[in-house]
Amino acid sequence: MSAPAEEIAHALSRLALYWRAAGWRAAGAQGLTPTQAEILSRLAADGPMRSGDLARQLGVSAPTLTDAVSTLAAKGLAGRQPDPLDRRAARVVLTPRGAETAALLPEMPEAIAPVLDGLADSERAGLLRGLTLVIRGLQEAGAIPVQRMCLTCRHFRPHAHEDAARPHHCAFVDAAFGDGALRLACADHEEAPEEERARHFARFAAVA
Fold it and tell me: Where is each HTH marR-type domain found (predicted)?
């Protein structure tokens, strides 16, 4: 590993430690574990989900998810209901009380927002681009689950425009956008075929 890569890895590890500690504090304030808090937040954002899909998105094992959902159900925060698309399957859903609790969970540690807001637009865009490449690389390696990000979406057209400020194109909204508007968790995401995802990644990574 090169010296710059080592420094980046060290920086990410320090951020992960801070984020994990902040997550424990925020979840604990609501009487939850971080995994339980993640489940509530994900269901609040995306709606009811099958247990398998929820486990994959959170990157946890099926038994871990089952235990967490059972605890949330005992607390009256979540439950299960038949999947309307497959009556043999079940979906995890929020209760009204669970939705209220999810609304109390912060999207990020309190100290992070002012730090990011203090960066220049170009710095935030560069940081988001770099993180997007790192996350997609880890997904390609099978180290983390595939998320609903631009680089895996069938609507994404990397470097489709000559405008350096807004080189990419989203076919879903038919609009150009720049690195600062890249999405890592888009509600309108539709996963592209594997070959198309590979082409997107290669083109995005090749053009700085």
Answer: 5-136
